[in-house]
Predict the 3D structure of the following.
Amino acid sequence: METNIVQMLQDIKNLLKNNNTRWLSLKDTVKHTNLSDATLRRAVKSGALKASHRTGKLLFKASDIERWLNG
């Protein structure tokens, strides 16, 4: 029973780790990257970092942030 629970938790952890379709707000992205709000806005304005403006606020895909940070 204990082994099943550990395996299930590991599976959930792997799913969360591989879930690059989650969206982060600007505030969450600042916390995640340790970069300033202004730096992220400049990257979006220059086209270096993709962001969604659809909801009226900047939203970033976690996968896009990782790709941008890793070059």
User: Anything to note?
Assistant: Helices lie at 2-17, 26-33, 37-46, 62-69. The longest strand covers residues 23-25.
